[in-house]
Backbone:
């Protein structure tokens, strides 16, 4: 009971400093942790009302990470994950007491630091002070947030991700904390580069060139038959070494598998 009482007092101190406690879960994976504890310990949020620490960095207009330090409780988790998991050391803590603030080298914007925009600080922040700016674009959509487990399509590592959607719209990505290949980590592409999925310019059907060389919409059987015919005629004419492919660890596993079968 003593420890529980101390916990409650500490929570009351940090809660009294924050602009708000309830935040949109789109802010990040751990963004509901603080509000859950406030509820669990029945915290009086105004007991220590007074001076506040943290100052939201409004000038950092990067497209990915909102640095809303009014909500920061100086837990240091973002600094540790950046240094110990990402190995980037892009952020640190400056000042002490009410002047404590998460900052970058020379107190600048993230794009001028060594930040790779991997998003791990966002996903570990327990208050939503660091928030996923892209996901928050969908804050006003009325549908419930749904999570669907999937695999990042970008390279051969195969990081597990949770696709965040509202209705039919993909609104964000969160790393799967239990993903065997990534254990909660992602790179900037897996974390933030998902707009292509539902982009209006994305091809949804294969294109095949007609006799005049113009691309025409087609079906998969026709397109694959045409590609196979092309490869076959090259092999017939010039031998099997006339066809080659370039594979790499940066290619998705599925593509690498097809290439080793094909070549
Ligand atoms: S996005 Fe990644 S690299 Fe940038 S500050 Fe956060 S943890 Fe560090
Ligand atoms: S993880 Fe969030 S609450 Fe903790 S120090 Fe970083 S910005 Fe502040």
Residues:
């Amino acid at each position: 009971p003593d420890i529980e009482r101390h916990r409650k007092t500490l929570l009351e101190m940090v809660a009294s400093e924050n602009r708000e406690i309830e935040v949109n879960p789109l802010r990040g994976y751990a963004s509901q942790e603080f509000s859950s504890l406030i509820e669990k310990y029945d915290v009086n949020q105004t007991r220590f009302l007074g001076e506040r620490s943290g100052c939201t960095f409004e000038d950092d207009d990067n497209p990915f990470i909102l640095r809303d330090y009014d909500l920061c409780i100086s837990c240091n988790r973002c600094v540790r994950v950046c240094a110990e998991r990402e190995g980037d050391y892009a952020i640190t803590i400056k000042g002490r007491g009410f002047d404590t603030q998460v900052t970058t080298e020379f107190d600048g914007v993230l794009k001028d630091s060594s930040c790779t925009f991997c998003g791990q600080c966002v996903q570990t922040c327990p208050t939503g002070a660091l928030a996923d700016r892209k996901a928050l674009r969908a804050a006003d959509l009325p549908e419930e947030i749904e999570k669907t487990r999937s695999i990042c399509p970008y390279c051969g590592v195969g990081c597990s991700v949770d696709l965040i959607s509202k209705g039919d719209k993909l609104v964000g990505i969160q790393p799967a904390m239990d993903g065997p290949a990534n254990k909660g980590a992602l790179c900037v592409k897996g974390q933030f580069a998902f707009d292509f999925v539902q982009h209006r310019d994305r091809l949804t059907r294969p294109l095949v060139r007609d006799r005049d060389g113009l691309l025409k919409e087609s079906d998969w059987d026709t397109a694959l038959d045409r590609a196979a015919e092309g490869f076959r005629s090259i092999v017939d004419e010039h031998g099997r070494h006339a066809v080659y492919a370039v594979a790499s660890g940066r290619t998705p596993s599925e593509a690498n598998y097809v290439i080793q079968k094909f070549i």
Observations:
- The two ends are 67 Å apart (CA to CA).
